[in-house]
Structures
1.
Amino acid sequence: MAVERTLSIIKPDAVAKNVIGQILARFEGAGLRVVAARMMQLSEAQAQAFYAVHKARPFFGDLVRFMISGPVMIQVLEGEGAIARNRELMGATDPKKADKGTIRADFADSIDANAVHGSDGEDTARNEISFFFSSLDVNGR
Ligand code: CMP
């Protein structure tokens, strides 16, 4: 399996619950490495631009409001099959449907406050990583 990089965001609900470390430990425990990281409070314009693909969806306004409600922790994860592995670790978007033992089943409260975001494919991963990080920020091995 190819070594990939994917973008992961620990959302405001999980940051407020003080579980950044527990979530990062799950990534590391599954063989993913944090190769870039930054903590920041997104502006409304940044959140709208990051989620532009969802602009026409009825939940867009709530999604943006939620994502700017507090600081987020953003990281690039690297490892074999990192994109799919991260999605397995996160569980389904709606925590009510997420498998037992996944991050969203264990830490999320609702489909909006769902603890984490992860890129859903190779193109998305490339675009989402470059949205937040320059190549100089990403420390490969
Ligand atoms: P995320 O993986 O960050 O991508 C878009 C987010 O929109 C998603 O997680 C959810 O938090 C949020 N969202 C709210 N309602 C829906 C919905 N019906 N379908 C998909 N995503 C939704």
2.
Amino acid sequence: MNKNDSYDLVVKSPGRINLIGEHVDYNGGHALPAAIDKKITLKMKKNNSNNVTVYSKNIDSEFTFSLSDLNRSSIEWHNYIIGVIFYINVLRPDAVKGFDCYIDSNLPLGSGVSSSAALECGVAKGLNELFKLGLSDTEIIKLSKDAEHTMVGTKCGVMDQFTVVKGQKDHLLLLNCKTQEYKTIKVDFGDYKLILLNTNVSHNLASSEYNVRRGECEIAMKVINAKYNDLKYLCDVKPEVVKEFKNLLPEKIYNRALYTSKENQRTLKAVEAINCKDLHALGNLLYQSHEGLSKLYEVSCPELDFLVEYSKNYDQILGARMMGGGFGGCTINIIHKDFVENLIEEMSIAYRNQFSIDLTPIAIHIGDGVKI
Ligand code: GLA
């Protein structure tokens, strides 16, 4: 397959950042994500057969499968595509016919910027248009998430798919993950920029430990529900109430619950800080979030901890924390625009000395959600 072939349509599907509100989406909390200007591009055309052929330029690999066989593949990235078609078929049986898809991306893989949701939602949006399926955004978000749960095996929340579909240029989304209602918040950080620092570590623990954390939160909720049965999600439980359970929950489970409850509150405080243009307060909330993710929720890793700790040496960095599912990927940093280059250089040297790994900075702009 060649990028210069003619295609019926081109989809641009973005990655996402999350300023704060990590691991709260599957606990009914508030997150503050945004779509970014780094994207997966999918070129699609009908091929008048019963087969789907997909080529990925980044990994220079092509695969073909029959629409009559939508079983899981042993190769992970294939499952994002097979999974989306499987769930479209549930809603619109046999409406997807054979097609070719050429994929190119400037979104780093496995870096916590949600290349997986970008791929799922990009395929779903593209097929929706190509075969005039009439799926709503809400259906596209849900079926993409379902594909990730069953075909890929990560029991993710809704934040990534929601942001990829609903993202708005220059705006953060204050997303209530319980109701899926959201408000947009204009981003104007004045002299400060959001910079991602990619550790270039992608621990494959991520998916299994992710599911373990989700299970731990469910255990906490069961115990809390024995006393407070009107609360449905961990994020409905205030930190003071979680503290009542200190001796009733195993320490780890207690820590998970306390982190979750506090992180949800931090998201709301972050919105107040943004509205008051108090970037120092916002930065501190990022540091507190990281502390919780590292010590209480235990989804960080030495490389992420090092970068966040090191950033505290600089007054020009207002805050930093790990971003996304964890165990590797990027930190998100609020850095004064005049110092970005110098600080990145110094941090890269320190990081290389410590881990013998190159750090990759990613300057991001907040962009729109998936577009045809
Ligand atoms: C991954 C998941 C999201 C969310 C984040 C952590 O990106 O896909 O649903 O849980 O981790 O906030």
